[in-house]
Design a protein that fits this description.
- The protein has a single domain (2-100), classed as 2-Layer Sandwich (Alpha-Beta Plaits), CATH 3.30.70.1060.
- The chain is 25% helix and 33% strand.
- The chain is built from four helices and four strands; from the N terminus they run E-H-H-E-E-H-H-E.
- It has helices spanning 13-16, 20-29, 75-83, 86-89, and strands at residues 2-9, 48-56, 62-71, 93-100.
- A four-stranded antiparallel beta sheet has the order 2-3-1-4.
- It is globular, with a radius of gyration of 14 Å.
- It starts with a strand and ends in a 6-residue tail after the last strand.
Length: 106
Amino acid sequence: MLHVGNSCCVESSQKRGPYWRGHIAWHLCLPPRFGSRISHCAAPLQGLLQFMGPFLTLEADDCGDGMFCLRAHSLAEAKAIAARNPFHRRGIRTYTVRPWLEKILS
């Protein structure tokens, strides 16, 4: 089942800076939709990252908030995966996760 989440910035970009690499590594250690996971990840997460990315300002700049979509067996599992994000663990961002039904138009 798919679960979509919003990740909302509560701290300034200066506070995000020291944890930026860990935040990116967290995304890279999620097994991607296509291909295999990064081999150096010690404990790959059980969810499957479908997509993720930042929300933009009207000027197309990163506003600090983002969105992600995980394939997980349950909402509880998806929330547990999202809770491991370094920004979420440190209170730099808050997050919500909801079940999502993908609709493909043909």
